[in-house]
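User
New here, explain this?
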Amino acid sequence: MAMLPTNLDMDVLRALVIAMEHGGFARAAERLGRTQSAISLQMKKLEEQVGQPLFRKAGRTVALTDAGDLLLGYARRLVALNDEALSAARGRAMDGTVRVGFPQDLAERWLPAVLGSFHRAHPRIHVEAQVGRGRELRERVTQGALDLALAFGEIGGNSATTAAGAATLAHLPVAWVAPDGFRADPESPLPLALLDAPCMFRQHGIERLDRGGRPWRITFTSPSLSGLWAAVEAGLGVTIRTPLGLPDTLAALEPHHDLPELGSVTLELHRAPSAANPAVDRLHGILADSLTSVLRDAGAQ
């Protein structure tokens, strides 16, 4: 008689994903409302099911083995599919329209996957998406032209200055961005590739250079972030941005390049006061949850 296949426990897989995304078993226990020892027992059960060690000591923390890293990728997909299936079954009758805005930084890699998943789970909800700059998106939420918007706040802002109806999701570092291997010449004006004005990052970077007495010149401007990335990749100049959505060919410059520090900026999720319906509630929750790993990779705090 053939042996029955082993079924991985969805609760255990979810605990694994949360532990790896939030920095360990203690953080996972906090988020799941369980004790750390209970999470550790779940991970031990998972190792027994897989038949391979999944974790190794890395100083005071726990890291994944190669087998653990492989399983984590599958766990993320299984948990996401589980949640999508439940959403589809529970919310298929949900309908309506949600108008939502996003910064360009999230439009290429993250946005299609999130909206695609949302549409499969809620095919009767019509999503109207707009990509724009932070101030414009925030104003449209205030005016009621958008229900939701992910937008950058003010550089150096904090949760105390976040607008009413908005949640601060993270503080992201603002950085000088250049191709791998770039070296700034302190004897020459710094070449800048920038978004067209008005742009908060553009203004902030120029002000910091002027304050520090660092000569600069604008070598390229673009109305779109994709055009800006292409110019920086081509070596036309450095730019100012967060690591969010940064192409793999570009990197945030280290402090030894003798360029002024740029501080940090908040990423906020804004919601219009009039946007009170189940469709908006559902997309609001999905946006906040699905950004967790993206923000972690971008060095968010």
Summary: The chain has ten helices and twelve strands. The chain has a mean pLDDT of 85. The CA atoms of residues 45 and 195 lie 51 Å apart.
